[in-house]
Amino acid sequence: xxxxxxxxxxxxxxxxxxxxxxxxxxxxxxxxxxxxxxxx
Length: 40
Hints:
This protein is mainly alpha-helical. It is built from one helix and no strands. The model has no long low-confidence stretch (mean pLDDT 95).
């Protein structure tokens, strides 16, 4: 039973980390696009 909680907790944390990672890369892409637009 303890293992089940460990697995569920890990999945929840992993999904949250993935969400944050995708959000971060999207923001970085937007920032790069803005900077590129300003240089031209």
